[in-house]
Specification:
Helix content: 40-55%
CATH class of the largest domain: Mainly Beta
Number of helices: 11
Number of domains: 2
Strand content: 15-25%
InterPro entries: Cupin_2, Homeodomain-like_sf, HTH_AraC, HTH_AraC-typ_CS, RmlC-like_jellyroll, RmlC_Cupin_sf, Tscrpt_reg_AraC-type_HTH
Organism: Peptoniphilus faecalis
Oligomer: single chain
GO molecular function: DNA-binding transcription factor activity; sequence-specific DNA binding
Radius of gyration: 25 Å
CATH architecture of the largest domain: Sandwich
Protein name: Helix-turn-helix domain-containing protein
Keywords: Coiled coil, DNA-binding, Transcription, Transcription regulation
Largest sheet: 6 strands, antiparallel
Length: about 350
């Protein structure tokens, strides 16, 4: 059976943008970040979404957005917890207006907002995107494009904030080569003690200038990039080994266990020991297959959620219509009773 894992392209103007849509079983923390904006919908179960130390407790139907280059992780809180995800580049907005305002995505729905119109529209549009891959017709491609636009529009209106356009974007190829060299060095040597002076010497720039071009190009300071690399690797070891926490801290470049605890708590809102205690056998087993095994299109949870997400708008409209009808009926009877009372009083 085909997996629920699709990639497609959207052309706007003369530019082509890649978009991904997939569903998978959520396990333990896998700390990551990427260039894309990520929209995650809970298809089944409950999970924690952590970003920059902030924790969102999400239930079925809830939606969370992770910004481009924002470090984040998810943790299943129930068995059979499934996430449905859409990735799109924030640069897709350039296809509409290159001089546009910049946006940052952040936030999640909860019990008060998960049934609002925008949330229902996002869920329904995700279903339409997936169903558009059932055949290769022109109609399906048009539906896919429209559904993608709807999600992006709803995300801008309900999950994004604006910032001023940065007109000093780095375009010099020499600087870009220096950034690539620094990132390669950090990726290979993050376990070692690395200072700003070390990477400045590597590319032959002044430390202050090195720090500036790295932050402008990558979107985060070099120290934060280095910490994310260390946390990502250390988190995997926490769930996959029986090593002492102090040993893991030193293995992955942290100066001591206190530094590791502080960094972990800042990112995930709890200590490494509390996180390790929260893991069960099933969560760890699922995690071993993290984004390697995707949901199949005949999965019972997907089929159930697809039906609910598709028809929830119609159910709500019908319920609202019934409420309106009842209110009208009550008013009619109230008027009749008032009229009878007036006549009786006269009599």
């Amino acid at each position: 059976m085909q997996e629920l894992n699709f990639s497609y392209e959207k052309e706007i103007g003369n530019e082509i943008y890649k978009i991904k849509c997939y569903a998978y079983y959520v396990g333990a923390f896998n700390y990551n970040w990427h260039e894309d904006v990520e929209c995650l919908v809970v298809l089944n179960g409950k999970l924690e979404a952590c970003l920059n130390g902030e924790i969102y407790n999400l239930s079925k139907g809830d939606i969370v957005f992770f910004d481009s280059k924002e470090g984040h992780a998810t943790l299943a809180k129930e068995k059979e917890t499934i996430a449905l995800v859409l990735h799109f580049s924030p640069k897709i907005l350039d296809g509409f207006d290159k001089n546009r305002e910049r946006y940052h995505w952040k936030g999640a729905t909860n019990s008060d907002s998960r049934n609002n119109n925008f949330a229902r529209e996002i869920r329904k549009s995700l279903v339409e995107i997936i169903e558009s891959f059932y055949d290769n017709s022109l109609e399906s491609k048009i539906k896919r494009s429209i559904a993608t636009d709807k999600i992006i529009l709803e995300s801008i209106e309900n999950f994004a904030t604006k910032e001023e356009v940065n007109k000093e974007d780095i375009k010099n190829s020499e600087k870009n080569d220096a950034i690539k060299k620094i990132i390669h060095y950090l990726d290979e040597n993050y376990r070692e003690k690395i200072s700003l002076n070390d990477i400045a010497d590597l590319v032959g720039y002044h430390p202050n200038y090195t720090s500036e071009i790295f932050s402008n190009s990558v979107g985060i300071p070099f120290t934060e990039y280095l910490q994310r690399k260390r946390l990502s690797a250390a988190t995997k070891d926490l769930k996959q080994s029986d090593k002492k926490i102090s040993e893991i801290a030193l293995d992955y470049g942290f100066s001591n266990v206190r530094s590791f605890n502080a960094s972990f708590r800042e990112s995930f809102g709890r200590s490494p020991s509390k996180y390790r205690e929260s893991l069960d056998k099933e969560t760890i087993e699922i995690d071993a297959q993290f984004k390697k095994v995707f949901l199949s299109l005949d999965n019972e949870h997907w089929l159930r959620a697809k039906k609910e997400f598709t028809f929830e708008n119609e159910k709500l409209e019908k319920a609202e219509a019934n409420v309106n009808y009842l209110e009208i009926e009550k008013k009619v009877y109230r008027d009749i009773i008032d009229d009878l009372e007036k006549k009786l009083n006269k009599f």
